[in-house]
Amino acid sequence: MPRPARVLLRLLAVVLVALLGTANVSPARASTDVDDGRRSDACRGRVALTFDDGPVRESTRRLLRVLRRNDVPATFFMVGQRVAADPRTARAVERAGHLVANHSWAHHDMSRQSYRDVRRSLRATRRAMERAGLHPTDLMRPPYGALARPARRAIRDAGYVPVLWTDDSLDWKSGSSRRVARRILAGLHPGRNIVLQHDGVNRSPRSVGAVDRVVRVAKRRGYCFTALDERGRPGFPTPTLSTIATDGIEGGEALVTLTLAGPAGRATALTVEAASGTAVVGTDLPAFRTRVEIPAGTLEATLRIPLGTDAVLESPEAFTLRLHEPHGLALAQPSVQVRLLDAATAPRTVLPGPPYLSLGRGPKFS
């Protein structure tokens, strides 16, 4: 490669290090008080806040503001009819980084329903969620916590995990916000706690008003806040990350798309490192090793890698991106190969995304 092109690649690499060193990472909705949903020696116990019967625009959106202010995650067990009636509020829940789960279509008592009716209710609710653009978990909560044998079999056959609770706020029944908070705090114990509250009943404003005090006092007592893992326990899901690379063209950029299989309920991260193949790191592309964070509420990140150019007609070259040090996710593959096509032989391609100047920018995330 001619000397000017090498100088350009060195400049790209230097600026890349500067950019990544000062990157503004979007805050995770999951509490930073716990690093691992399964185990944390610093925690007296784990607390998973769960909210039933929404979404209801006013109370649900107010609750989202409270959770954001306190930097804690939650799991929302939604009623299908209400998702269909207010998909924008339902989407706001997931985009805020929280998990969404199934609470039936019309909140009927499943212990009185047939196998077929339960399956139909779960299916209709999931369909409404997917139409709203949600990515629901495989968790469900039966209305009133009531189940009979046909319902249990229907839930299992539909692939759902039923989740009840350990700490009932009784927010639907009586009490001011302060009284609801006292009930919840009195029910916490070392180990795993699943708190039941509601964002979709008449008394929900009082329940939402209790959250600030619950979080503040529970944290002071040494509790950590989590979402629910795949088995319905206080913790976090561990979605699989898949990686797809698009061929790059000399003088252009290569695109690498990182996609989570489902929501994680917190920020996830991994380290991405460029390794030479027939394309040489530091010559054909900038050298980099960086930490990529996918914020809670986001399922995808795109890495754009600027590529050098030369005046030599060559066969396609390739380099490798090594993926390691995952946090909150599982890697579908440890590496991905990216091809670099010679500009003279590459087909004409319109790359997605906004154009930007390669000079001085290095790989960036979108």
TrEMBL record:
GO terms for cellular component: membrane. Residues 1-30 form the signal peptide. GO terms for molecular function: hydrolase activity, acting on carbon-nitrogen (but not peptide) bonds; metal ion binding. The keyword Metal-binding applies. Keywords: Hydrolase, Metal-binding, Signal. The keyword Flavoprotein does not apply. Residues 45-226 form the NodB homology domain. GO terms for biological process: carbohydrate metabolic process. InterPro entries: CalX-like_sf, Glyco_hydro/deAcase_b/a-brl, NODB_dom, Polysacc_deacetylase_ArnD. This is NodB homology domain-containing protein. The lineage of its organism: Bacteria, Bacillati, Actinomycetota, Actinomycetes, Propionibacteriales.
